[in-house]
Design brief:
mainly beta; 3-stranded antiparallel β-sheet; globular
């Protein structure tokens, strides 16, 4: 791949085959994993929508730990004050997963984060990260 011929707009829009590697023009991608990132103690949930269709793509709710400090074994990551945010995954329906949606490069997304403002926490933020398959 010759990165010297690529600019970010062409890469994301699939306009330049040199940018995609293998000379394949991409119309978009299908997510296989997306995960929201937020911090305890304020995180409640995050949602990711296809703003063009109104379809809810992913909803994640924070799961707070319940064990006292020093938990071991299978409960070692379930400590009070910590949280987990299970990701959304897609894949083969034969394996019990939903077929991933096709998101074209011009798809508009909306993210909604809910936080508990009872707790003071500087640097409040919301972030999505993921992996997908070029289509």
């Amino acid at each position: 791949m010759n990165r010297g011929k690529c600019n970010l707009r062409d890469f994301w829009n699939g306009l330049n085959p040199e940018c995609m590697g293998g000379g394949v023009k991409s119309v978009g991608f299908k997510p296989v994993y997306v995960g929201a990132h937020c911090h305890a103690p304020t995180c409640i949930s995050q949602e990711l929508y296809n703003a063009d269709t109104g379809e809810l793509l992913c909803r994640q709710e924070a799961v707070y730990g319940t064990e006292t400090s020093g938990a071991t074994g299978a409960r070692r990551f379930d400590e009070k004050g910590y949280l987990a945010v299970p990701p959304c995954v897609w894949g083969d329906p034969a394996e019990g997963l939903q077929e991933p949606p096709l998101l074209s490069w011009d798809t508009n997304l909306t993210s909604i984060k809910r936080a508990n403002s009872t707790y003071a926490h500087t640097g409040e933020m919301a972030l999505w990260q993921g992996r997908g398959i070029l289509v």
